[in-house]
Specification:
By secondary structure, this protein is α/β, with parallel strands linked by helices. It has 2 domains: about 70 residues, no CATH class; about 200 residues, Vaccinia Virus protein VP39 (Rossmann fold, 3-Layer(aba) Sandwich). The protein contains 11 helices and 7 strands. It has a 7-stranded mixed β-sheet, with helices on both faces. Helix 3 crosses helix 4, helix 3 packs across helix 11 and helix 7 runs antiparallel to helix 8. The radius of gyration is 18 Å and the shape is globular. The two termini are about 25 Å apart. The protein binds S-adenosylmethionine (SAM). S-adenosylmethionine (SAM) binds next to helix 4.
Amino acid sequence: MSAFGMARMFAREVLGRSQQPRGATPAALLGVDGIIAAMEDGGASDGRTAAGYLYHSARISVVIAGSNICADFGCGTGVQLLQVAQLNPAIQFLGIDREPTMLARAKTAAERVGIPNVEWMVDDITRPTVLRERKVDAVISTMTLHNLETATDLMACTSAMASLIGTNGAVYIEDFARLKSPRSIDFFVGLNAPIPYDRFADLYRCSLNAAFTVRELREVATVLSGINVHTTFLVPFLVVIKTADRTLAPTLRARIHAMRDALPTTYKKDLDDLRKFFALGGLANDPFA
Ligand SMILES: C[S@@+](CC[C@H](N)C(=O)[O-])C[C@H]1O[C@@H](n2cnc3c(N)ncnc32)[C@H](O)[C@@H]1O
């Protein structure tokens, strides 16, 4: 990334006053088939989003350590969930999504790689019915909240999480927060997009436009017990809402380190940038350190 472009983005976001309005959700703009096609272009755990997936899989593993049953709110095609489930074979996972076509993709991928500890469920994460009947002691959700239609749905979603896990459960939520300037969105989309843009870059742009503000995310997080809200340094472009870290088994820590070591150089640098921006934002206890 160019240092000059980065400095200009920081200046715009830190000094800018007005907040651009929220855009349409990915489903409204691209449709479910469009999202699936975009994920095929760029949303794989060994593709250009590898750093993000590995960073959050590692952090999720620390937060949910020792849990029995963990629900993933909005698992989509299961990219994040399958990596987490593979790293944590002793935990049973429930992948929840309202779109059967997404779940069918996820299920096929799980069968192809041989991941037995995930059950897939069609449900609405803002007003779950099937899930409500299950006992769950951990909840995760990655890159999903910006897909919710309204701020009321956002509040309904975190309230559903809270009533599902009660006061002692583990929570790890991550999502984008809305940038102030459309030019900052251009900057982030351009960081690792191919030329010409592919469908994943379009999905990325649409997701950044649809993000809720940090203030909205902080507000809905208040219904969850024992959480802290963390953002990337200076520009709250990414937000993590999580309960306290637990103890990561040394074998799992070693495995996570080995996965970082095995990343191609550019993706390793992306991962280290992400670690740095969250650490500078105050998120301690880096599992890659
Ligand atoms: C970007 S995808 C999530 C990707 C996945 N968590 C990952 O990180 O690999 C967002 C998902 O949220 C789902 N979704 C949106 N609103 C929902 C709702 N109200 N109930 C259930 N799923 C919903 C969409 O169908 C979509 O699959």
